[in-house]
Amino acid sequence: MSGRARAMQVEETSNLPFIYRQYEREQLLDALRKMHLIRRFEEGAEECYMRGLIHGTMHLSIGQEASAMGICMPLVNEDQITSTHRGHGHCIAKGADVKRMFAEFFGKTTGYCAGRGGSMHIADVSTGNLGANGIVGGGLPIAVGAALTAKRLRTGKVVVCFFGDGANNEGAFHEALNMAAIWKLPVIFVCENNGYGMSTSTERSTAVANVADRAAAYSMPGVIVDGNVLSEVAEASHEAVERARRGDGPTLIECKTYRYRGHSKSDRNRYRTKDEIDDWMTNRDPIKRYEAQLLEFGIATSDELEAIRGSVQQEIDAGIEFAKVSPMPAIDGLADNVYTFEA
Amino acid sequence: MNAPVREISYSQAIQEAMAIAMEADERVILMGEDIGVYGGAFQVTGDLIDRFGPDRVMDTPISELGGAGVAVGAAVTGLRPIFEFQFSDFAALAMEQIVNQAAKMRYMLGGAVSVPLVMRFPAGSGTGAAAQHSQSLEAWLGHVPGLKVIQPATPHDVKGMLLAAVADPDPVMIFEHKLLYKMKGPVPEGHYTVPLNKAEVRREGRDVSIVATSIMVHKALEAAEVLAGEGVSAEVIDLRSIRPIDRETVVASVKKTSRLICVYEGVKTLGVGAEISAMIAESEAFDYLDAPILRLGGSETPIPYNPELEKAAVPQVPEIVDAARGLVRGVR
Predict the structure, then answer these.
(1) EC number(s) in its UniProt entry (chain B) (predicted)?
(2) What ipTM is given for this predicted complex?
(3) Is B194 inside a domain boundary?
């Protein structure tokens, strides 16, 4: 295959994790760059929020970057995703421009949703992101519908449906998985299990040990991966995408991960310990682990990694500046786009 | 242009519209519970599966929420689904997808997408199916910007409005009164559309305007006939759409007759009649009023099973006659 880390000998590469066998160096470094971009975007958004430049609320996915990026690595631009209230990472991983995302958070006309959606409805249809969703489980049946279109119109697209552990107890989850399975649709259900639906742990909310166990009820493969290891996530996604493109139907992937920040800006973090949070941040951080591998396998030098961080910071600064100077929507545009044509 | 006109039933008119739309555009698909070989709970889909196959006349599992969501997702990405609820009451199971997703997606995404979705809701009482299969819930959806909500009252209108709905880029909710399914009326062959935003004056009159929806249009017309015998001239307006409401037609009628009665089957309080009344109270027609505005709506109860109680729960012709007579003669 053309997509291998060509600097290495065949016998050296055979034992390497999946992505190092599957992707070119450039793609591997681009994935790292996007993971940094996701984290710095969210840190930048948080700073802007603290300074009163962004209103409302936001749900940060800091700590979950490998699941967003790993799932999107095997996708092409035409493939589609549905996302969640914690969806900034999905949006960036699928190819959105952080300039227009910041502009949306600032409520500006240049934002992806012309300032009408904000963080919770961030979308970039041009890169296949059909939108984050403010309703837990709201995107699940919609993803199945998008996959139905792909199958009916033979577009060859696959659809990835991101959702959190909280959504797996919504009726929509069960209805969506069942329909995807009976109609063998090209959809991949990706549960980002960060351990808590707001404050309620999966142990307290969910009758099965793993969300992926529920795949058995809908006759589809249920795959559990360490959601903080990019290669593991990308490998599971790759297999599910191939299966979907072959017409063999859906897969449920469960990425075990963790969010460092609270559920939203109102969270006092009283349902988990500081030790637990510190353990994840210190020992299981997805970016640190990926960078360590890139160094270990000789794919990049520490100078090169530093350069990536620097270029990400520049992009973030430029994005915030773009948002600041972009125009506010006109008040008389309040009713724009309630309907496609004015009634 | 002048297509032959035949007498066919309301449900045949719907089926014909769906077949025409499917013939013309491969993206049009039907989805719903038991709409395939069974033909639909009210046989509206009938044998369309024989013509278009199970890929385009799709039986869904009994999953109203998921099914509605699949239709939303399909509409956003390039299909033109017509989704049938078996009973409008079951919309309660799917409100999330209708209200939070379909209605708002275009707005939330700043105009980046459209949701060309049609949903059909068999509605209303009179079939002895009691409280969970007889409601008129159109006002629920009429309250949601982003949706278009229509109540065609005749075979002609349901065909033309359904074809307009399929061509419309936004979600259109069609409430079909179940007692209308067997009603016959003149329907042109072939393709034609009826606007989704225009009321129709069904009978002209001088003394009182009766604004009615769905099956109540026919009851109002019956009442107008009785009233004519008593020397009272009633104008009957078929509202046809509750979102948007054709303000112009209703205001013009009230300015002419100076009296207004709203007749609808949904529960009276906070219903369509409240909206029409308020609209007139806020309009230039207010100064023309010679009498209070009256609302005849469904009772403040669930729909009961017993046939006599069931009839008593929704407006009937004698009540409309009494109300109009009272208003015109100043006796209330």
Answers:
(1) 1.2.4.1
(2) 0.96
(3) no
